[in-house]
Amino acid sequence: MSKPVVSIVMGSDSDLGVMKISADVLNEFGVANELVISSAHRTPDETAKFAEDAEKRGIKVIIAGAGYAAHLAGVLASKTVLPVIGVPLDASSLGGLDSLLSVVQMPGGVPVAAVTIGEAGAKNAAILAAEILAVSDDGLKKKLKDYRKKMADKVIEKNRKLK
Ligand code: RP5
Question: Measuring from atom 3 of ligand 1, which residue has the nearest CA?
Answer without folding.
Answer: 11
